[in-house]
Design brief:
This protein is an alpha/beta fold. The protein has helices spanning 57-78, 96-103, 116-131, 151-175, 198-213, 230-241, 268-278, 291-304, 336-340, 345-352, 364-370, 407-425, 431-444, 454-463, 469-483, 492-495; strands at residues 2-13, 18-29, 41-52, 88-93, 134-139, 186-191, 217-222, 250-252, 327-329, 360-362. It starts with a strand and ends in a 17-residue tail after the last helix.
Length: 512
């Protein structure tokens, strides 16, 4: 015969609508024939967790009851040798309201769809029916000093403390996700829909490729359609070159799920309530699926990532993975009002990061500096340029808007690239080597190119989109000509400090 006791409690923050819960489960298995003197098998284990968007403290207390029964159901499914079917369960809670609602429950759906407690009680009855449990809920006096408390009251004091610890720990982890030295391989990147010019486009591609090389999982957001975005195209190139799934490199954050009905999504709303609390706003309001709240919830998801697949877990963050290590905002500078009254995803993200201890780097220069990228970022691509940017349009001088190069050189460059694609994929040839092959071909056609600008071409070849080979080599050729001296210009080499030029090795992957 199996007899189970559950002592549970909850701790509630009325400003954040946030509950922590905890419980102790004692399982006593008595032999059927006690006359044989067989020992009684006793097991004791604990549980605790948190839940967001609890409109009242009683919801958390009832969830603590349900969480204990869920633990038993999980053990029943997981351990074939265990059998709790048909056993007696005594549950002790200091919330009289939870006990009353259990015994006065009616299965008729409530008028208020946000009545979470109704669904908790309904699940309790579903578990009772499934496992044929005989459940009794008892009220226990709370906060009785241990000196005067009985055994159940002492246990209630313990779970009360654990519930409070769960709640405070979860909020602390939300605001300081990497406080204890947790290493995150995730980074958030906010990028405008369109680049100002080819330099900015190349810088995006360079940053994307660099983050992917470091093994970062990128939370990517752009305001608008993400199809054929230069940042994503660079990641697609990387995934093809390294034979990795694109989904393993980047998570595109442009979805708007219902953050209110799914309990797993409600954690996104806790940081919004924290913002309201810090600004002395009324925190008793119920959220709606308005555009403003959806953008705020999406900003939270960009920072913290996806929720765990189950509401019962030991991870107090409630997330599958750790929060991002840094946020790179490459978008236009926010207006001052966006910091006080956020409306956009970008505005909400900036607002949240005034509370959450995660670095926010604004602009390409800051992003490149943090990533220790030595590639030169053109002044045209600095964040300050975007202060005045209204509708970014690629300038006429960029390689994207120049007609195709002369057919002879274009044909030679295209042949070189297509010949070397297998070697590039197998890492037998680097893009720096490919750039030097292009420059050698260019010089063999009778053109001059300054030695000091070779590194710039190497970076350009590395970062340029390669989905369309002809467009790729055309961009490369145009960039080479752009940096080449004009016929009447003084020799650039004479104007630059001398440096030793490495001996050029004959390319291994060039057709004769």
């Amino acid at each position: 015969m199996t007899h189970i006791k559950i002592v549970c409690d909850a701790s509630y923050d009325h400003n954040l609508w946030f509950s922590g819960y905890a419980g102790i489960i004692n399982i006593k298995k008595t032999p059927a024939d006690s006359s044989k003197g067989l020992p009684v098998d006793t097991q004791t284990f604990t549980y605790q967790g948190v839940a967001a968007e609890q409109s009242k403290s009683q919801e958390g207390e009832t969830l603590a009851v349900l969480a204990g029964l869920r633990q038993l159901a999980q053990r029943q499914r997981r351990e074939s040798g265990e059998t709790y079917i048909g056993c007696t369960i005594d549950i002790y809670t200091d919330c009289q309201g939870s006990r009353d609602r259990f015994y006065n429950f009616t299965p008729r759906p409530p008028l208020n769809r946000n009545d979470a407690e109704y669904y908790y009680i309904k699940e309790v009855y579903d578990l009772i029916a499934k496992y044929d449990w005989r459940v009794k809920i008892h009220h226990v006096d709370a906060h009785i000093p241990d000196l005067h408390a009985n055994v159940i009251q002492k246990l209630n004091n313990k779970v009360d403390e654990r519930a409070n610890n769960a709640r405070t720990k979860a909020i602390k982890m939300m605001l300081n996700p990497h406080e204890h030295g947790e290493v995150s391989n995730r980074v958030a990147v906010l990028v405008p829909k369109d680049p100002i010019n080819i330099n900015e486009r190349n810088a995006w591609s360079r940053l994307a490729y660099h983050l992917a090389e470091k093994g970062k999982k990128i939370h990517f957001y752009t305001d608008g359609d993400h199809e054929n975005h230069p940042f994503l195209l660079a990641l697609e190139d990387f995934s093809l070159m390294h034979r990795e799934e694109l989904s393993a490199i980047v998570k595109i954050c442009n979805y708007t799920p219902d953050f209110l009905s799914d309990p797993l999504n409600k954690r996104e709303l806790t940081i919004i309530r924290h913002h309201m609390k810090m600004r002395n706003f009324d925190t008793s309001v119920e959220f709606t699926n308005s555009e403003v709240h959806l953008r705020a919830a999406l900003a939270s998801r960009i920072i913290f990532g996806d929720p765990t697949p189950s509401i019962v877990h030991s991870n107090f963050s409630g997330r599958k993975h750790s929060a991002v290590d840094a946020v790179y905002d490459l978008m236009d500078v926010l207006k001052p009002d966006e910091h006080r009254f956020p409306n956009s995803v970008q505005g909400w993200l900036h607002t949240f990061l005034t509370y959450v201890n995660i670095p926010l780097e604004e602009g390409l220069r800051a992003a490149f500096k943090r990533e220790r990228l030595k590639a030169v970022v053109s002044p045209e691509t600095t964040f300050s340029t975007r202060e005045e940017a209204k509708t970014p349009v690629g300038p006429k001088g960029s390689t994207d808007y120049i007609p195709y190069a002369d057919e002879e050189l274009l044909s030679a460059f295209l042949e070189i690239y297509e010949t070397n694609i297998p070697a590039l994929k197998n890492r037998e040839l680097t893009y720096n080597q490919l750039a030097r092959i292009f420059l050698l071909e260019y010089r063999e056609h009778g053109h001059t190119f300054p030695t000091y600008a070779e590194a710039s071409i190497e970076r350009f070849v590395y970062a340029a989109p390669k989905k369309d080979p002809k467009k790729f080599v055309n961009r490369v050729l145009k960039q080479i000509r752009k940096l080449s001296p004009k016929p009447n210009d003084p020799s650039p080499e004479a104007m630059m400090p001398r440096r030793q030029t490495p001996v050029k090795k004959k390319p291994l992957f060039r057709k004769s």
